[in-house]
Amino acid sequence: MGFKEQWSKIKENWLMIVLVLLILGAFLVVSKAVETGGMYSTGYGGVAMEKSLSSYVGSENARGILSVASDSFAPGVTERKLIQSANLNTEVEQGKFKSAETQLKSIITTSGAYLLNENVQKYGEEDDSYYYGYYSLKVDTKKYAAVISQLKEIGKVTSFSENTEDVTGTYTDLSVELQAEQDRLERYQKMFAEATQVSDKITLNDRIFDEQRTIKYLQDRIKNIDTEVEYSSIYVSLQEKQSPYANIKIISFSALAMAFVDSVSSLFKLIFVIIPYAVVIVLIWILYKVLHKKKK
């Protein structure tokens, strides 16, 4: 049979060839599904569905964490979440640092505040010495204004600044994300209870573990924000004023004697430097007088 005859036969039976190819393709797809399918091949999509869901969950988690990490304004929220902080620098008189520190700690105790950090250093020696203290406090936001007012009375305020940060948007985003993750966890737990194959249970168990970890992370972030809102931060520095005579030194007799000797030595050096020039000048002047007389 020649080439033309074969080509003619193919054109006559092209529909049959297409039908055979379609049947073969369908057979391959079904075989692949049977190999990778599990209990959820008809109901939940099996392991293949779980892999797809895994990538979806991962991307959603990533987007969720990124979204809650950035602050948004959330204008529709009436109850705002505000974090307050203040920096107070105070100067106290010489010799009154210890009493000022006692007053500071008394304010902390009576207000129920927490002293988180304390660092006191002594600088200089003897008359030049002075104390400097740095204190980090946490105080109930309701008592914040009253504590600030009391702290300002300890000494002379050299600088004071306040900062208020609105984290309502971040808090709202975290709450929404937490609810979404909790709903997803419930779905995984339901799927796990209905699973019969070991491979499906292992996969779902991993998903449940990841969800529980994500939920714990979000809960901790929300709890930290609640703590920051409920307790304001105050950073206080106490600096003892230096004595006005701190830099004045009493000169000893030996120092005066050494200074006198140095001055005399400098004077003699100057004299011995000047004498040769003076002699030359005197000789020139005498020579000028002698020559001037002869001309007359």
Main attributes of the structure:
alpha+beta, 2 domains, 8 helices, five-stranded mixed beta sheet, 296 residues
Describe the structure.
It is a single chain. The protein has 296 residues and is an alpha+beta fold. It has two domains: 176 residues, no CATH class; 44 residues. Strands 2-3-5-1-4 form a five-stranded mixed beta sheet. A hairpin with a 6-residue loop joins strand 2 and strand 3. Helix 3 packs antiparallel against helix 6, helix 3 runs parallel beside helix 7 and helix 6 runs antiparallel to helix 7.
Short summary of the structure?
The chain has 296 residues and is of the alpha+beta class. The protein contains eight helices and five strands.
**Number of DSSP-assigned strands:** 5
Helix content: 55-70%
Number of helices: 8
Mean pLDDT: 78
Largest sheet: 5 strands, mixed
Judged by helices, strands and strand pairing, the structural class is: alpha+beta
Largest sheet strand order: 2-3-5-1-4
Tertiary shape: elongated
SSE topology string: HHHEHEEHEHHEH
What's the gyration radius in Å? Answer: 45 Å
Beta-strand content bin: 15-25%
Query: Unreliable runs, pLDDT <50, ≥5 residues?
Result: 33-70
| Total domain count | 2
Separation of the first and last Cα atoms: 155 Å
